[in-house]
């Protein structure tokens, strides 16, 4: 992972963030876990944050299935986007929490990737993955 702040335009912020997350999930669907993790920025070292790499990503995905086999994450572009669930929650100072349900084996699931799009003083954004969990 790295620190590669990104530009998201104010005019199309939600659309650009959704595309970013779709591309991230697409990498998961191609088993390119290292590349998916490289898209993320490093969180603050506060003792609670997860520094994502292929091993932690694998562990999180295996935890969803609860078995020893890796779930087959689907390419969101090849899944019914009409059923896609993405939620934006505005926070302070232009930051957003973004929840995105991950498709597995061609179906949208309750496994949710939780991101923070954190606005920097420069106007650029850090993209942090807070976790993968089942949300109701």
Fold and architecture overview:
The chain is of the alpha+beta class and 136 residues long. The chain has one domain (13-134). The chain is 26% helix and 27% strand. The chain contains 3 helices and 4 strands; from the N terminus they run αααββββ. The protein has helices spanning 13-29, 33-38, 54-65; strands at residues 86-90, 96-104, 107-119, 125-134. The N and C termini lie far apart (29 Å). 24% of the residues are buried. The model has no long low-confidence stretch (mean pLDDT 90).
* Tally of discrete structural domains: 1
Instruction: Average the pLDDT over all residues and give the rounded result.
Output: 90
Q: Uncertain regions: pLDDT < 50 for 5+ in a row?
A: none
Query: What portion of the residues fall into strands of 2 or more residues?
Result: 25-35%
Helix percentage = 25-40%
End-to-end gap: 29 Å
Order of helices and strands: HHHEEEE
Reading side by side through the largest sheet, how are the strands ordered? 1-2-3-4
Largest sheet: 4 strands, antiparallel
Number of strands: 4
Oligomeric category: single chain
Shape: globular
Whole-angstrom Rg: 14 Å
Topology:
Layout: H1 13-29, H2 33-38, H3 54-65, E1 86-90, E2 96-104, E3 107-119, E4 125-134
Antiparallel strand pairs: 1-2, 2-3, 3-4
Distinctive features:
136 residues; alpha+beta; four-stranded antiparallel β-sheet; 3 helices; 4 strands
Summarize the structure.
The protein is of the alpha+beta class and 136 residues long. Helix content is 26%, strand content 27%.
């Amino acid at each position: 992972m790295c620190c590669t702040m990104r530009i998201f335009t104010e005019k199309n912020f939600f659309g650009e963030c959704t595309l970013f997350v779709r591309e991230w999930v697409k990498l998961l669907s191609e088993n390119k876990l290292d590349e998916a993790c490289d898209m993320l920025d490093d969180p603050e070292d506060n003792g609670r944050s997860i520094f994502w790499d292929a091993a932690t990503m694998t562990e999180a995905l295996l935890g969803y299935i609860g078995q020893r086999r890796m779930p087959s994450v689907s390419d969101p572009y090849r899944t019914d986007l009409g059923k896609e669930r993405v939620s934006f929650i505005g926070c302070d100072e232009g930051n957003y929490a973004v929840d995105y349900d991950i498709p597995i084996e061609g179906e949208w699931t309750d496994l949710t990737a939780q991101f923070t799009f954190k606005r920097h003083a420069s106007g650029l954004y850090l993209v942090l993955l807070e976790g993968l969990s089942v949300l109701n």
